[in-house]
Automatic annotation (TrEMBL):
PROSITE patterns: CNMP_BINDING_3 (PS50042), HTH_CRP_2 (PS51063)
Recorded superkingdom: Bacteria
GO CC list: cytosol
Domain HTH crp-type, chain residue ranges per copy: 146-215
Alphabetical UniProt keywords: DNA-binding, Transcription, Transcription regulation
Limits of the Cyclic nucleotide-binding domain: 12-132
PANTHER family (UniProt xref): CRP FAMILY TRANSCRIPTIONAL REGULATORY PROTEIN (PTHR24567), HTH-TYPE TRANSCRIPTIONAL REGULATOR ARCR (PTHR24567:SF74)
GO molecular function terms noted in the UniProt entry: DNA binding; DNA-binding transcription factor activity
Protein known as: Transcriptional regulator, Crp/Fnr family
Length: 234
């Protein structure tokens, strides 16, 4: 895949002309991160923002008790570190490669200088970025306002839609990290997975999930509790 094609997958960049894309690529820096490599740390001076071309990156915070709270899991086409870019502040979280990854770094000073010279690029980017922000806001609200079974059902439906694979999906992250994303414990998550399997909603084989009853999953995502969901007859 060419760099231009890769840029088309990144919200905010996918509506740019070829000339605009080439100008942005001219100031970008290609970086590679090995699995478990720290890309930036909480409080580190922000050098710019990143886009994922290949691999997975998790963005997380550490609580005072030393507990890890995952904020985002970024895959190809996602970007992270924008706060330091536009607010001129230090990175507010940690970022770590979950697998060998290829990233594009957009240095803050060079990127802002480009936007000041080429304001039409900023206008072109705003539509794509605002659309992505609306999508993320809806996802956060969906996950935050539900009980854990509803959060997991919403997450599985969302992941299947993202991967355009309505019948089955592969969990990109270990279950203990998924528990952190959903704001629960690994033990609770395992119990809910078992409940979903027993009720015929899903079939689980390690990190491979088959969605068996889409209607019941959507009802669970909406109501958030198992007792609000019809149990399929055996």
């Amino acid at each position: 895949m060419t760099m231009e094609k890769a840029m088309e997958r990144i919200p905010g960049f996918n509506g740019l002309s070829r000339d605009e894309t080439e100008k942005i690529l001219s100031i970008s820096i290609l970086k590679k991160a090995r699995k478990k490599e720290i890309i930036f740390s909480d409080g580190e001076v922000g050098e710019g923002f990143f886009a994922v071309l290949r691999g997975r990156v998790r963005v997380y915070k550490m609580s005072e008790e030393g507990r890890e709270v995952i904020l985002h899991v970024c895959g190809p086409g996602d970007h992270f570190g924008q706060v330091s870019m536009f607010a001129g502040k230090n990175y507010p979280a940690w970022a770590q490669a979950m697998s060998d990854s290829k990233l594009l770094l957009f240095p803050r000073r060079a990127f802002l200088d480009l936007l000041s010279r080429e304001p039409q690029i900023a206008m072109s980017m705003m539509s794509g970025l605002s659309s992505k922000m609306r999508e993320l806001t809806l996802q956060v609200e969906s996950l935050a306002l539900k009980e854990v079974p509803g959060r997991l059902a919403s997450y599985l439906i969302m992941l299947a839609e993202e991967k355009k694979s309505p019948g089955s999906l592969h969990l990109d992250i270990p279950k203990w990290q998924l528990a952190s994303v959903l704001g629960t414990t690994p033990e609770t998550l395992s119990r809910i997975f078992s409940d979903m399997t027993d009720r015929g909603l899903i079939d689980l084989d390690r990190r491979d999930v088959t969605l068996l009853d889409h209607t019941a999953l959507k009802e669970l995502a909406e109501h958030g509790r198992f007792y609000d969901v019809r149990t399929p007859k055996k």
